[in-house]
From TrEMBL:
The keyword Signal does not apply. It comes from Pseudonocardia ailaonensis. InterPro entries: SAM-dependent_MTases_sf, UbiE/COQ5_MeTrFase. Keywords: Menaquinone biosynthesis, Methyltransferase, S-adenosyl-L-methionine, Transferase. GO terms for biological process: methylation. Its EC number is 2.1.1.163. S-adenosyl-L-methionine binds at T62, D80, D100, A101, S117. Pathway: Quinol/quinone metabolism; menaquinone biosynthesis; menaquinol from 1,4-dihydroxy-2-naphthoate: step 2/2. Methyltransferase required for the conversion of demethylmenaquinol (DMKH2) to menaquinol (MKH2). This is Demethylmenaquinone methyltransferase.
Length: 229
């Protein structure tokens, strides 16, 4: 089955996620030892959503993250470029839109808030995707990016990258995932991803202000928060 390369060709990435869609949520829960549920809750809390507000959940996959956001009472829409992922989440009662992160099908200032969880790493142009999110978010609106990051303690970082990402993750994926090859790409893309401070700089350069982040799991994951300029 398909896997993507680090050039992140959109067709290859979409095909890869189509291939993992069937068991995607289960695989994530196993790989994170259930921490994915906590991270979704923290993302919702960081957005500080209020009933009636509109929020875009980009790279929403099966819309499990969108359902979590909807608990706030906000109107939430799931957007993803993998039709297989959207179909896998068809049973979740939130609006779903097939969308390219670099060409979002929404008008300027359509949303009060926007978020992307574990998906920014998969787009071909990070800064452009962040600028698109800024375009469709009203001035003063909020952004939260939940993404894999760089552990801050050197011994943990070395063990995480050399043992967890290169050995443990592929071994678990072979037993659980519907497309184990995709998780080789996953580990490579995490190692290749910029550290927290550099990502904050990219976010700030794409039309966002008051950028800050919170490390989770010892820095293996980070929540970046920002406000639309």
């Amino acid at each position: 089955m398909a896997r993507a390369e680090l050039d992140k060709d959109p067709h290859d990435v979409a095909a890869m996620f189509d291939g993992v869609a069937r068991r995607y949520d289960l695989t994530n829960t196993v790989l994170t030892a259930g921490q994915d549920r906590r991270w979704r809750k923290l993302t919702r809390q960081a957005l500080e959503l209020r009933p009636g507000q509109k929020v875009l959940d980009l790279a929403a996959g099966t819309a499990v993250s969108t359902e979590e956001l909807a608990k706030s009472g906000a109107w939430t829409v799931a957007a993803d470029f993998s039709l297989g992922m959207l179909r896998a989440g068809a049973g979740r009662a939130v609006p779903k839109v097939a969308a390219d992160a670099l060409h979002l099908p929404f008008a300027d200032a359509s949303f009060d808030a926007a978020t992307i969880s574990f998906g920014l790493r998969n787009v071909a142009d990070t800064a452009r995707a962040l600028a698109e999110l800024a375009r469709v978010t009203r001035p003063g609106g909020r952004l939260v990016v939940c993404e894999f990051a760089t552990p801050t303690w050197t011994p943990y970082r070395v063990a995480y990258q050399d043992v967890m990402l290169r050995r443990v993750l592929p071994a678990i994926a072979r037993r659980v995932s519907s497309n184990p090859e995709a998780y080789t790409y996953l580990s490579e893309s995490i190692v290749d991803w910029p550290p927290q401070r550099r990502l904050a700089e990219i976010i700030a350069g794409a039309g966002w202000t008051r950028v800050a982040w919170r490390d989770l799991a010892g820095g293996a994951v980070a929540l970046h928060r920002a406000t639309r300029a």
